[in-house]
Design a protein that fits this description.
The structure holds two protein chains of two kinds. By secondary structure, chain A is α+β, with helices and mostly antiparallel strands. Chain A has a single domain, classed as Alpha-Beta Plaits. Helices cover about 25% and strands about 35% of the residues of chain A. Chain A contains three helices and six strands. In chain A, strands 2-5-1-6 form a four-stranded antiparallel β-sheet. In chain A, a hairpin with a 2-residue loop joins strand 3 and strand 4. The longest helix of chain A is centred in the N-terminal third of the chain and has 17 residues. Chain A is flat and about 45 Å long. Chain A starts with a strand and ends in a 12-residue tail after the last strand. Chain B is mostly helical. Chain B has 19 helices and no strands. In chain B, helix 1 runs antiparallel to helix 2 and helix 4 packs antiparallel against helix 5. The termini of chain B are far apart. Classes of the chains: A alpha+beta, B mainly alpha. At the A-B interface, helix 3 of A face loops of B.
Chain lengths: ~120, ~400
C-alpha cells in the first residue's frame, strides 16, 4: 500500500471566462469523486487562487518572504488529494478520475516515513 | 579453447538469448526484488560456463539455470543479505520454497519494463536490459548513447519503479489493450532503431532488429490471441525480409523501387503473410495489422510498377483515420503519386510541410525533392535535396541523397 499526492494544476485565469454551469459541473465531479472513493482518499483541499500565495526562501541573511508563487507558470496548483492505493497502477486509475478542465494532474508517490533512517543490518 | 569449453560457451550464449527473461522472471519471485534477481541470474550464467565445460551441457539449460539462480536467491534471502537495500524493486508474494515447476512469468517482466509512466527511451533500455539480458554497455552501444548516460537512464527508471510502486504484474483485461499497445511500441522501437540506425556509418544494426523480432515472437507465444502482436511480428518480418536488398555491395542505400526483389527472403514473407491474415481476421483492424498489410502488398508485388497502389492508399486512409500521424500522411502522399500523379502528391506533401512536427524530418524534404524532380522542377528539387541533407545524420542516407542530387545534372 502506498500513499500518493495528487496535484491538480489548472489555468485559473481561464476560470473567470468559464461558464458557470461548467464550473458547477467540475465541482459536482469532485464531489462524486470523493463520494466514490472515500476509502482511498486520506486528505485533500481546494486552494485559493495563486495570487494569494507567498514564497519563502532561506538565504544566508535569514528567510526572505516574497509575494506570489515560486514558479511562474500558466497552470498553477489549484488543489490536491492525498490518496492511498495498493500499487501505482491503481493510484493512476484513481487519479484519472480527478477532473481538470484546462490543466493536468500529477501523481507523486510519497516516500515511506523513516525510509532514510533504516539501519543497515 | 578446447572443444568442451567452446561447446559450453556457445550453449551459454544460446541460453542467454533464449532463456534470460524466463530465468530472471522466475528468480524474481524468489528474491522478491528485481535487482537482486538480476545478480543471481548473472551468477548462474557465470557458473554455467564452468559447470557445462566440466560436466557437459544439460538437457534443459533453462531449467538448470533457473534452479541454480533460484537456489542462490533463496540462500541470499535467508541470509537477509538483500534486506539492506534502500529501494528494492519489489515483487509481491515471494515464494519461500522452491517449486518443481516454475510458471512462465515473463509477461510480468515485460509489462513492468514497458510501463507508460516510464519515459519511452527508458522503457526501451529496461526491456533490452531485463527482458533481453543485454549488459548496460551493450544497451548503450545498441542505442548509440554513452555508457554513463545509459547507466543513469536505467538507474533512474528502476528508481521510479521502486518509488512509485509500479506493480510487477500483468495488467487486468480492461487495461490490457492500452498497456499492450505501449509494449508493442517499445518492441517496434527496438526493431526500427536497428533497421535504420539514427546516426553512424552503418545503415542498419541487424542485432537490434533481430532482438525486436525475438521479442515479438516471445509475445506471440505468451499472448497467442492478441491480433496486434501478430500484426507487429508480420510488419517486422516483412521489413526484415528485404534486408539483403536494402544496401548494395558498397553499403549504399537502395530504394524499395530499385531493389533486386530476387534477394528478398521468401520464407520470411510467407511466414508473415499468414500472420497478416491472422491479424486482420476480425474487425477492427489494429494499427500494426494495417501497417503489416501495406508492407505485405509491397513484398507481394513482383515489380515496383506492379504494386497495388490504390489498395495501399486505401490502407493508409484507414491508418490515418484511426491513428493520425504526419509521418503516415507523408507515406500516403508517396503512394498517392502512383495513383493520381506527382502533382497531386506534391500538393499533399506541401500541406504537410506546415506541420511543425515534420520541420526536422529529413524524409519530408527528400520526398518533395523526388516529386519536384519528376515534375521537371530541377532547381526546386536541388534545394529540397540540400534541405534533406542538412537534416539527416545517417551517413549512408546522406550519401544516397547526394547521389540523387547529383543525378539532377544542374545547380
Amino acid at each position: 500500500m502506498g500513499t500518493y499526492l495528487v496535484l491538480i494544476y489548472d489555468d485559473e485565469k481561464r476560470f473567470a471566462e468559464t461558464p458557470r454551469e461548467v464550473m458547477a459541473d467540475m465541482h459536482e465531479r469532485h464531489v462524486a469523486f470523493i463520494a466514490n472513493n472515500k476509502a482511498s482518499i486520506v486528505g485533500g483541499a481546494q486552494l485559493t487562487t495563486s495570487d494569494t500565495a507567498t514564497t519563502i526562501r532561506h538565504t544566508e541573511g535569514g528567510a526572505t518572504v516574497t509575494d506570489g508563487t515560486f514558479l511562474e507558470t500558466k497552470e498553477v496548483l489549484g488543489g490536491y488529494y492525498v490518496i492511498e492505493a495498493p500499487d501505482y497502477d491503481q493510484a493512476l486509475a484513481l487519479a484519472k478520475q480527478v477532473p481538470s478542465i484546462y490543466g493536468a494532474i500529477e501523481v507523486w508517490p510519497q516516500r515511506e516515513p523513516g525510509g532514510d533512517l533504516k539501519i543497515e543490518q | 579453447m578446447t572443444d568442451a569449453s567452446a561447446e559450453a560457451a556457445s550453449a551459454v550464449a544460446a541460453a542467454h538469448e533464449r532463456e534470460w527473461a524466463f530465468v530472471l522472471a522466475a528468480t524474481a519471485r524468489v528474491t522478491g526484488d528485481l535487482d537482486a534477481a538480476e545478480d543471481c541470474v548473472q551468477d548462474a550464467y557465470a557458473q554455467a560456463l564452468v559447470h557445462w565445460t566440466r560436466g557437459g551441457v544439460p538437457a534443459k539449460p533453462g531449467a538448470w539455470l533457473t534452479t541454480v539462480a533460484t537456489r542462490r536467491a533463496l540462500e541470499l534471502r535467508r541470509r537477509a543479505a538483500t534486506a539492506a537495500r534502500k529501494l528494492p524493486l519489489l515483487v509481491p508474494d515471494p515464494v519461500d520454497e522452491l517449486p518443481y515447476d516454475f510458471p512462465d512469468e515473463r509477461l510480468r517482466l515485460v509489462f513492468t519494463c514497458c510501463h507508460p509512466a516510464l519515459a519511452p527511451e527508458a522503457q526501451v533500455a529496461l526491456t533490452l536490459r531485463l527482458v533481453c539480458g543485454l549488459s548496460t554497455v551493450e544497451v548503450a552501444r545498441a542505442l548509440l548513447v554513452s555508457e554513463t548516460t545509459m547507466q543513469a537512464r536505467i538507474t533512474r527508471a528502476k528508481k521510479k519503479i521502486a518509488a512509485t510502486g509500479i506493480p510487477y504484474r500483468v495488467p487486468s483485461p480492461s487495461e490490457l489493450p492500452e498497456r499492450l499497445a505501449s509494449v508493442l511500441d517499445v518492441v517496434h522501437l527496438v526493431f526500427s532503431s536497428g533497421y535504420t540506425a539514427a546516426s553512424g556509418r552503418q545503415l542498419t544494426r541487424p542485432e537490434l532488429a533481430e532482438r525486436g523480432i525475438q521479442l515479438a515472437r516471445m509475445l506471440r507465444l505468451l499472448l497467442p490471441g492478441e491480433r496486434e502482436v501478430s500484426g507487429l511480428l508480420a510488419l517486422m518480418l516483412l521489413t526484415d525480409a528485404r534486408r539483403a536488398a536494402r544496401a548494395d555491395a558498397a553499403g549504399r542505400l537502395v530504394r524499395l523501387e530499385d531493389q533486386d526483389r530476387s534477394l528478398w527472403d521468401r520464407a520470411l514473407i510467407a511466414e508473415a503473410e499468414a500472420l497478416v491474415e491472422q491479424s486482420l481476421s476480425a474487425p477492427p483492424a489494429g494499427r500494426y495489422a494495417l501497417m503489416a498489410a501495406i508492407a505485405a502488398l509491397h513484398d507481394e508485388a513482383l515489380t515496383w510498377a506492379a504494386t497495388d497502389w490504390p489498395q495501399i492508399v486505401a490502407l493508409y486512409d484507414l491508418l490515418l483515420a484511426g491513428w493520425p500521424s504526419p509521418v503516415v500522411a507523408l507515406n500516403r502522399a508517396v503512394a498517392l503519386s502512383f495513383v493520381d500523379g506527382a502533382a497531386a502528391a506534391l500538393a499533399a506533401v506541401d500541406e504537410l510541410g506546415a506541420d511543425p512536427r515534420l520541420a526536422a524530418y529529413p524524409y519530408l524534404a527528400a520526398t518533395r525533392a523526388e516529386l519536384l524532380r519528376q515534375l521537371g522542377e530541377t532547381d526546386a528539387a536541388a534545394a529540397a535535396y540540400d534541405e534533406a541533407l542538412l537534416l539527416t545524420s545517417n551517413e549512408v542516407e546522406a550519401e544516397f541523397l547526394t547521389r540523387r542530387r547529383a543525378a539532377l545534372g544542374s545547380p
